[in-house]
Design brief:
The protein has 241 residues and is mainly alpha-helical. The chain has a domain of 87 residues. It has 11 helices and 3 strands, in the order ααααβββααααααα. The protein has a 3-stranded antiparallel β-sheet, with no helix packed on it. A hairpin with a 4-residue loop joins strand 2 and strand 3. Helix 8 runs antiparallel to helix 9 and helix 8 runs antiparallel to helix 10. The two termini are 40 Å apart. About 8% of the residues have low confidence.
């Protein structure tokens, strides 16, 4: 009887956790949709105001409105929703700016002149710029590639970039060191747990990167550790690779 009761409690707990997570995701989606619509309205207002002041009606307007930052301020909880919507419309020019604003991912790339493609240096992935495609041609977004496949390479790429940073930090000038430091930082918020491990091992030079990616002003390894313990669940979607 005791075993049956224990099993029942375990099953009930699992159901409650699943139900809570489902409701949480539903609320997140509803809130995101609300904020996204407000952002679109703010862009339209910017465009309308711009048209009333100039004859260049086709010019792009500022999309980084207060409403844009309202979405960013909700943090990584919205990343999965953004990716889902982006997969439905890869020509949406607004969603990538939200994705990059939250994830802080900046690719190192080069241009393959022979095949006329952009190559992501760290990932070996190439794609045709959206500006070279016809309106009916699908766009193979680098961000969707990264989400579906590229981010699985994070540990390997992080260790490579970190090794390059450590090596050049010992033998080179400030400019070269900064380049490797920024290259590491540009991997985005997905490397927060990787950074923490290095910081805990004594590399306190990485704390500024940790602060930039987490939008914090932490000073010590203990600060970083405590903050991550409290907030890591918000990064669950992006770290689930």
């Amino acid at each position: 009887m005791h075993k049956l009761f224990t099993a029942f409690i375990c099953i009930l707990s699992s159901v409650l956790v699943f139900s809570t997570e489902f409701e949480s995701k539903k609320m997140s989606r509803e809130k995101f949709n609300e904020l996204y619509q407000l952002w679109m309205k703010s862009i339209e207002k910017e465009r309308s105001d711009f048209k009333s002041k100039t004859s260049f009606s086709s010019m792009e307007v500022n999309i980084f409105t207060r409403e844009y930052f309202d979405i960013l301020n909700r943090g990584p909880i919205n990343v999965g929703i953004i990716i889902e919507l982006y997969k439905q419309d890869t020509r949406n020019k607004y969603l990538p700016s939200l994705f990059v604003g939250i994830v802080k991912l900046h690719f190192q790339d080069s241009f393959d002149r022979i095949n006329k493609k952009i190559v992501l240096t760290d990932y070996g992935y190439s794609y045709t710029s959206i500006f070279r495609l016809k309106s009916n041609e699908p766009f193979n977004s680098p961000y969707l590639y990264w989400w579906d496949k590229g981010r699985k390479l994070t540990p390997k790429i992080f260790e490579k970039k970190y090794s390059e940073y450590i090596k050049i930090n010992k033998n080179s000038g400030a400019k070269s060191i900064k380049e490797k430091y920024i290259a590491l930082q540009n991997m985005g918020i997905i490397i927060l747990p990787n950074l923490l491990k290095k910081i805990e091992k004594g590399d306190y030079s990485l704390i500024p990167i940790f602060n930039y990616l987490s939008n914090q002003k932490l000073k010590t390894v203990n600060d970083c550790r405590k903050w991550w313990k409290i907030n890591k669940d918000q990064y669950r979607d992006i770290l689930h690779y």
